[in-house]
Amino acid sequence: MKQTVVLYPGAGVGHVRPMTELANVFLKHGYDVTMVLVEEPLKLSDSGTTVIERTAASNPSISFHVLPSIHAQDFAASGKHPFLLMLELLHYYNEQFEAFLRAIDRKSLHSVVLDMFCIDATDVCMNLGVPVYTFFAGSASCLSALTQLPTLIAGRQTGLKELGDTPLDFVGVPPMPASHLIKELLEHPEDEMCKAMMNIWKRNTETMGVLLNTFESLESRAVQSLRGPLCVPERILPPIYCVGPLVGKGAKDVEKVERNECLEWLDMQPDRSVVFFCLGSKGTLSTEQLKVMAIGFERSGQRFLWSVRMPAGSDSPEKYLEGCPEPELDALLPQGFLQRTNGRGLVIKSWAPQMDVLGHRATGAFVTHCGWNSVLEAIVAGVPMLCLPLEGEQRMNKVSMTEGMGVAVELEGYMTGFVKAGEVEAKVRLVIEGEEGRHLRARVAALREEAKAALEEGGPSRVAFAHFLLDVDNLGKQLGD
């Protein structure tokens, strides 16, 4: 009888996608996989439901189970921050999640793997005697810093915001400017959002182990810090398993790939000559910033592929969705920009097949919001990056990318929310044709080979996953005694 693994991702595309890749790893090892989804929090993202439907359709070997609906409007009436609302909803779903687990034959239930935001479900699994693990979709560096943060702020009477750019010293992580932490963590320690986030990071390391979407040589210092005694002096952290990089393989439908206009355009460009500009599933810029970025690209003289999303603050999102008339792009960008850059640049609306673009021979650099999934995809493709972090932990990732991994340069101005045209021009030229760009490409090319080797038979990520499975089996025997 096959054993079943239950995966419980949190809300949002950036959590479901890597956990789907983790599901595929379990499938290759002969396990059945059920992914439990929660309806309401997913609707808080701009495209969550669509992505879930597409994910289920393209992964028929994975079973998907949607928990019975809870009336989210009852919670929304409280006026709480959407993040706190999501956590509260996930907590209330514990009862349904427990009922679902109880319906599975205990002898066939191998383990439960929780997303970082579903961590309250740890109590459910512990009560049932089920091996429970965390899947942290972010970087090891981020987890290490966040795990050390409670000790740093213990006893403080004020928040960290007053420290500004003062570097904070975390074990295993490059010096981190206080201003680059997740903004809610800069508030007073008794602030509701700050306390909720602190609790999440603490609970993420209270399961029986943590699966990390990274490979050890990419973040060796951070990984070792999580395994050592200095990260959280007052307690021993659970085992850490580096099982990544878990990224998609690009489009599976070859004919569809060949028909995509941006890939056809890339086919006509020289090797490593194109700057790909895409800020993830939710990343948006103001109309003014879009225009200034366009000026910078034009002045650089370099080739570019730009995925433009609806401007931040726009009250007419339907005008900028895929399939909108071409004149709408003219309204967003400087007058005559599309005509002047025709042939050298391509601007598309809303969506690009990111993995296929990054893996194309013509792509030479990637302007990214520094979401961890995007960072891994670029490393796997061997593409150096220009950092334009927008929210969440992205500024923390930027520090690791530039100071620790050596795979990126920053676009100065991201801290004020506005990057000047001259900065765009200079950094694009630097990465595509400058000496520093050549060093970046060499570094990322080396990491690409290390990432590939990590996932091969006998590679460190494959070995780590096998170690994880052995630990679960041993733990299961103990719980069954």
From TrEMBL:
Protein name (Swiss-Prot/TrEMBL): Glycosyltransferase
Organism: Triticum aestivum (Wheat)
Keyword Transferase attached: yes
Keyword Transferase: yes
Protein EC: 2.4.1.-
Family: Belongs to the UDP-glycosyltransferase family.
Gene (name only): LOC123075946
GO MF: glycosyltransferase activity; UDP-glucosyltransferase activity
Source species, domain of life: Eukaryota
EC class: transferase
Gene3D superfamilies: Glycogen Phosphorylase B
Keywords: Glycosyltransferase, Transferase
